[in-house]
Structures are given as structure tokens and as C-alpha cells.
Amino acid sequence: MYDLSVIANSTEDQIYTEGFSRHYFNQFVSDKLDPNRTIPDVRHKLCKNRDYPVFKLPTVTVVICFLNEAFSALIRTIHSVINRTPSELLKEIIIIDDFSSFEDLKGHLGTHLKIKYYKKVILLRNPVRKGLIMSRIIGSRHATAEVLVFLDSHCEVNTGWIEPLLDRIVLNRKTVVAPIVDSVDAYTMVYDSVPVLVGGFKWNLFFRWDPIPVKIRKMLSDLSQPIKSPTISGGLFAIDKEYFKELGEYDPKLKIWGGENMEISFKVWQCGGKIEIVPCSRVGHIYRQVQPNNDKNDVNIKRNLLRVAHTWMDEYQQYVYDARPNLEGVEYGDITERVTLRNRLRCQSFSWYLKTIFPEQVRQFSDSHRFVHFTDIVQTRIGTYCSEGF
Ligand code: UDP
Ligand code: MN
Fold first, then answer.
1. Residues 70 and 156 in one domain
2. How far apart are CA 256 and CA 130, in angstroms?
3. What is the pLDDT of residues 249-301, one digit of tens each?
4. Which residues form the signal peptide (predicted)?
5. CA angle 346-347-348, nearest 5°?
6. Residue 81 domain-assigned (yes or no)
7. 112 and 24 in one domain?
8. How far apart are the two ends of the chain, measured CA to CA in Å?
9. Count of domains in the chain?
10. 265 plus 317 within the same structural domain
11. Is the CB of 130 under 6 A from ligand 1?
12. Is the pTM of this model over 0.85?
């Protein structure tokens, strides 16, 4: 595997460099991989013997939006879903092209999908760039299955990934579930397991992986059990389709990228649902060191975070301003509809959420020293892993 990364001559060096500058990961290696490659089954051993009768599980629509994704990474994502999801459960994969400009994502992609997966894969194209958030809403509205699964366009789902997620939704349709998001190395494309962590957030409203709180850890018989999580990383989760609608989807006025993970997390907990990380479900994601969509001065992100803070966080919105002074004075539009939704769903206060669901969260302006054994180098929507210290 590692020898695929070897650059033999100056032509290859140019291909490597250009690929990296386009995608911030090693497209040179990505292109060389078999789209059906085997990845290590990194599940806890107890997961492997668990039986989930397929007839008891709901069907799924997998929604993947993409913008100028590397063709090989997108195809590998789709292949992994087709290869590792029981066909009775997989109603369709909806992929939404968010107005990409790369040539291979135009005609060639459509033809490739038609030949390979006629009918199972539906390709929608936005006539203008609408962003990740609106694209996902569009995808969800086209879905015909009972459960929605959102994935990024550079993922690889692992063996038995879907059954344990669906099993939790069957038990309680208001449970929103996320897999463990394993690491696909941006340089080598090597798939590696990551430790079982839960979702938290920084007061600047960026997602953070946290260790399992001691109190919760003590209640778990082993690390294959689903674990309640205060937030979900934005990219990868499953939710009952009707429940997603009841929750008002994503706030449609959130623009492009960012903040939607916090919106759905707060909303689910505050309005009577719950979020769980399901360690028996593993999905690889290419974590990039550079986040093309994540700029702390991006006006859309700032606006999105303020919409979330003002709609869901009550008096704690001040913490967000304190943690991110550049939000001061930023216009965030009308949130009346979202506040009406919150009232209609009779949602709890943010202080209830903190006390009941996330008591570990403390007011902290610099989170960097909070957990000495966990260093987050670059904070992203999904979070970035660093190998050191786990
Ligand atoms: N994306 C999109 N339109 C955008 C921005 C992002 O369709 O305007 C897609 C992107 O191709 C990816 C997903 O949304 O499949 C999530 O974005 P990204 O991977 O950049 O988020 P991260 O993993 O860095 O948090
Ligand atoms: Mn991603």
C-alpha cells in the first residue's frame, strides 16, 4: 500500500503536486486504488458476532453531495456503499453535484454511474452552487427510503456498517446515530481505526472529539455498546427521514457549509430526541490538514453560527461571541421561523441541555489544554485526528 505513494519520476511528481493542491489529499494514490479495495475490519470483536435480521430493519437512502471531488474518491465512496450494504436495505444512493467545474465530474461521471449502477444511483445536479447544507436538504427531499444516511464524498464504509445504525433507529425513531469516523490518511490513503470518542463542541461552535465521560464509561459493559453523544460531527450520520422533516430539516437559511452540525445536535437533544455514537459501525473519511471550506473569517460560516447560537443557545450565545470576537456585529438574518419551530416542538432550554446532556462542558476559551491526551491540530466540521497521544 505504501509503495503506491512512491513518486518515481518528475512527471509523477507533477501529478502528485497538482492533485494535492486541488484536493488537499493524495489524489495520485487515490487514483491508483481499486475502487473495490479491501479495508481492514476494525470493529470491536463483539460486533462481529452480532446478528441483525435484515427484515426487521428499515430501508436507507444514502445522500452524498460533492463539489469538485476527486473522481476516484467519489467512486470509491459509492462502491463501498454498494459493496457493503445489504441490497434489500439500500433503496438508493442520491449523489448531488453542487455545480462542480471539473470535467471528469460532468459527462463521464453520469455515464460511469449509468453503466455500473443503473437505477441504484441517482445523480442530481445543482444549476448553481448551493452549498453542502442546501444540497443535503435537496437530497433528503428526493429520498424514498425510511432512513437517510448522509456521507461526505470521500468516505469508505466498512463491513457491517449500516445494520447497527438502523438497529438503534428501529428501537427509537428519534435516535440520530453516527458511526465511528475512522481515518483515511490524506497522504497514504491507508485506512486506520480511531479510538471510540464522543462528539463535543468548542464555545466557538466548532466540533470537537471528546473522551467518553468517566460516568458513562462505567455504565458500558464494553466498547461495542452505543454511547450517548452531546453532538454529531457534521458529515456522517443516519436519521429517520420523517423525523428529519419534523425537526425542520436543516435551517434552510444556513448558507453553504458550517454550523449545521451544531444546529442538528442541539435541536435533536433539546427537542426530545437523542444522539448516539455506534462503535460497531465504522466509516472511513479522508481527514485533510487543510480544510478548503473552513475559513474562520468566512462570512457564511460566521452567519450560520450566529443563527444557531441565537436560535438554540439562549443566554449562552454570549459565550460564542466571547470565544469568537469576530462575530460581533455580523448580520445573521431573520430567525423567526426557527424560533417558531423551537416553540412548536416545545424544546428544552440550552441550560437544560448543558446540565442534562453535556455536564462536562465548561466555559473554556482555550480548549487546547483541556484534555492533555487529546490534541486537535486543526479543528474542522468533522474534526481532525492526530495519531499522537491516543
Ligand atoms: N460540499 C458541497 N458543497 C460545498 C461544500 C462542500 O457539496 O459548497 C461537499 C464536499 O464535497 C463534501 C461535503 O460537502 O462531500 C463536506 O465537505 P468537507 O468534506 O469539505 O467537510 P469536512 O469533512 O472538511 O468537515
Ligand atoms: Mn469531509
1. yes
2. 6
3. 999 999 999 999 999 999 999 999 999 999 999 999 999 988 888 887 899 99
4. none
5. 125
6. yes
7. no
8. 24
9. 3
10. no
11. no
12. yes
